[in-house]
Amino acid sequence: MATLGIPGMVSGLRYEYGIFKQTMRDGWQHEQPDHWLARPDPWEVARPDEAVEVRLACSFDIHAGALRTVRHRPSTLIGIPYDRPVVGYGGRTINTLRLWSAATPDYFDFQQFSGGDFVGALAETLTAETLTRVLYPDDSTTEGKGLCFLQQYFLVACTLADAIRRFRAAGNEWSALPDKVAMQLNDTHPTLAVPELMRILLDDAALGWDQAWDLTQRTLAYTNHTLLPEALEKWPLPWFEIMLPRQLEIIYEINSRFLDDVRGRFPGDDGRVARVSLIEEGQPKQVRMAHLAIVGAHSTNGVAAIHSELLTQTVVPDFAALFPDRFNNKTNGVTQRRFLLVANPPLARVITDAIGDGWIAEIRRASRFRV
Fold first, then answer.
1. Measured between alpha carbons, how far is 26 from 70 in angstroms, rounded to an integer?
2. How confident is the model at residue 204 (pLDDT cuts 50, 70, 90)?
3. DSSP letters spanning 239-289
4. Which parts form a coiled-coil structure per UniProt (predicted)?
């Protein structure tokens, strides 16, 4: 995007640790902590002046080394952004990678510390920092899955709060949102953007449902990366009840209106209604995040021609029948600048001598090169 001169911002979480760092000793692999933030990063700029609040319907404590929810005790997290430049080829456009780090509004409870509760004085800070401490929490445990769920909401809430703040600061009316802001949901992980954006438009902007839903759909687009049904995320409904009850209310209403439309278009087809519902029946019930993304976005794309074809034919054929115009393909690829210009300078020189250097910024021009 930067090379093409398209302004944009990528949002993610500022993790402290990666999965692991691999070392070899005596021919055997040894796994060590991969501390990503161990050294200062000269390209990273902290922006505490642009921090945002993230409100939850519960709070957390640390029990036996794991993050545990405390019901009915609302809490607030602070998202602190850290920016790094993404420089386009030639340096004419510089976009931003913005990574969010979690903190608490009060970094230290002096009263607890003075009373001798040294661990309790830091408890809220420790639980907040746990949120962005590790990439890919252990999903073999309920606690690890819950932390992943919370990470996803934290990313979505920070990103939307930041984008909406900048959108409104520019003096825009709410009706201009899809014209000024386009958000791409990269797989199902940020799908909570659908109910969160609706919450902002309904509760903060005081818009009506129909207008809020129209703006949400026209603002969001979804990229699917997997054809494996088991890899399409589903989150237990009770987690929404504990952490995000307002967002769950909105999901219920989205689902109710959507299923009414399905029944109207396919009367008597209860099997289809069950297959496309945003809520999967079971113990416990679960929210189907891929379904929510497809319904809440104006576009759904696969990442290769065969992938996009199989997506509509085998994974979500009912949705392809409902929304044939929403599905499309956007082929993922590699950049010729890294994998040819940098990786193979002699070949790059041959191509440039033959057709000029325009291919470096625009790969389509490389089609003029013939051996």
1. 47
2. very high
3. HHHHH-HHHHHHHHHHHHHHHHHHHHHSTT-HHHHHHH-SEE-SSS-EEEH
4. none
